[in-house]
Amino acid sequence: MKSLDGRVNPTLLEVGDFEGQPFLVMEWCPGRNAATAAENARRFVSSEGPQRLLVLCRTIVDSYAHLHAQGVIHSDVYPQNVLVDPDGGVKIVDYGLARWAGKKGLDSSRKLRRGGFGPFFEPEYAQARLAGKRPPTSTTTGEQYSIAAMVYYLITGAYYTDFSVEKKEFYRQICEDDPLSFSMRGIEPWLELEEVLQKALNKNPLNRYNSVQEFAEALKCVDSSRRPVAMRVPHGDEHSTANELLSDLLENVDLTGARLASALTISPICSVNHGAAGVAYLLYRLACVRSDPRLLSLADVWINKSISAMGSNSAFYSS
């Protein structure tokens, strides 16, 4: 963090020790994550939507190119690690897994690990997983693939293929399946942009762009004015399936539902990600969307259920 110039990263303000505990202080970076910023841009029904999306994605790719130019590979590429401020500026956050490119000695003091989110992993990572081998260290070429997968997601609102929930098939898809065309995602073709992404998403790293900077330059040549905007509208059966799923879930967590009566049994039982606090937050958000006081009351029941179980060994920890 000390070596970076602060243009695309939070500035490190202070490092110290307080009563035997190390700490660091970083610049506060306001903004929304890239997925939320892209979702808002996709809602524009005029040509402004594609233009906003393209500007956002150019800025993000430029930011990673600038990071690489400073000799740093982020190693944890996905939309939640990209913050977009109200003026469209971008900060890449979370450098816990970042490493130096081509400076092995500077990384020798710690065991290098890989991070990220599955749909954005590069084929080199997936191949190692399929072979039962330790994943390779991150590279600028591999990171280019992850960035391109993220750009596809930000533009279309969907991953570049329909990933399986089965692990081996999931990794096989990363290794072998070509990205789906925009038309197959229910939006108007954008051939210039699709061609740029296809190159960056090539399964063979030798056939990708020579650098993320070159990828960024290719994006700058894409003309958003040539593409009419057409947002993806879910089919009726998609709404039906979603409503059915939501109804089943609400029945399960209702006052007479199986979950509330029997309690959660798989730890961590109280956390937001995996436990009762997460159920409470879901119900709270639904209550806000639907202006439903009953769901708000049910959220209160679940948050109190979480509080009452906080003394348990399985509240926030799973062995």
Overview of the structural elements:
By secondary structure, the chain is mostly helical. The chain contains twelve helices and seven strands. It has helices spanning 34-42, 48-69, 104-107, 123-130, 140-156, 167-176, 191-200, 212-220, 236-253, 258-262, 276-290, 293-308; strands at residues 12-18, 21-26, 32-33, 72-73, 82-84, 90-92, 99-100. Strands 3-5-6 form a three-stranded antiparallel β-sheet. Strands 1-2 form a two-stranded antiparallel sheet. The longest helix has 22 residues, at 48-69. The mean pLDDT is 88.
Give the SSE map.
Blueprint (H helix, E strand, L loop, with lengths): L11 E7 L2 E6 L5 E2 H9 L5 H22 L2 E2 L8 E3 L5 E3 L6 E2 L3 H4 L15 H8 L9 H17 L10 H10 L14 H10 L11 H9 L15 H18 L4 H5 L13 H15 L2 H16 L11
Antiparallel strand pairs: 1-2, 3-5, 4-7, 5-6
Indicate the percent of residues in helices: 40-55%
> What's the helix count?
12
Secondary-structure element string: EEEHHEEEEHHHHHHHHHH
Distance between the first and last residues' Cα: 32 Å
The outline comes out as: globular
Low-confidence spans:
none
Mean pLDDT figure: 88
C-alpha-based Rg, rounded: 22 Å
* Beta strand %: 5-15%
Give the strand order, joined by hyphens, for the main sheet: 3-5-6
Structural class: mainly alpha
Based on DSSP secondary structure assignment, what is the total number of beta strands? 7
Largest sheet: 3 strands, antiparallel
